[in-house]
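Shapes recur. One chain:

:::
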Amino acid sequence: MSTTFQADDVTASEASLRRFLAGLPGVDQVGVEARAATLSTRSIKTTAKAYALDLAIRMVDLTTLEGQDTAGKVRALASKAIRPDPADPTCPSAATVCVYPDMVDTAVRTLRGSGVGVASVATAFPSGRAALDIKLADTADAVEAGASEIDMVIDRGAFLTGRYQAVHDEIVAIKNACARPDGTHAHLKVILETGELQTYDNVRRASWLAMVAGADFIKTSTGKVQPAATLPVTLVMLEAVRDFREQTGTMIGVKPAGGIRTAKDAIRYLVMVNEVAGPDWLDPQWFRFGASTLLNDLLMQRSRMRTRVYAGPDYFTLD
């Protein structure tokens, strides 16, 4: 691709956007899956592993997205995000707590002054099947309540039928709805729902489409569709953000979500981030894990390294 990439040129018309996305290099399925498998065999030990565990904890968006969520559950989750291991004050805090828009206020009040952010799913999560005005109101309500990040879902039906301009314009509109009165904006994470995109080529196209439209992060999944996050899909997305920075100078974050449950899984992703995108992305500002059960395994592995005694799952609260 040309080093004179200009987003305005790409999105000047439906035809130019379609031409740009169709011109992206195809993904070698065998090559991507083989490289992901190879990277997953890498192992790290001792101090490097201890660092990786703490980094992974700092990257967790601790999530509860259930119909049975209550204010009490959100307060408990927020308290855990602040101090994941009450027995060890050296344990870092999680990145954010991720909740539905109606729970944002509760999370914000509990987390105030802690440094832990509040992310909110919006835009008729997880299906995205709602009119644009409803999606915009959903987003604006969450931002007004204090959400520092918005996780939106793209219209997969529009994307899969080639209506790329419609997907682009909706992302732009949601990004505008993330604006605050002081001129700042909540960070926008765009969920591709890769389990419904069918091919790696579509994952690459959706990644670029989201970034061109103004995404601050691209995210694999809602966690409600299988398969959710996978190493090969995340590799394709990491290649996309790496290439986007080379073309534009702008860094975009990546968030795999759904199905990442163990410290071993998390470390595999961190190795991939370092090898594919580069060490600049090894920071919670640029890489996150969307998870509900991952944190406990990270804490158990961390406790084992610190005390030489393996902590059981009942040592930590269930999320």
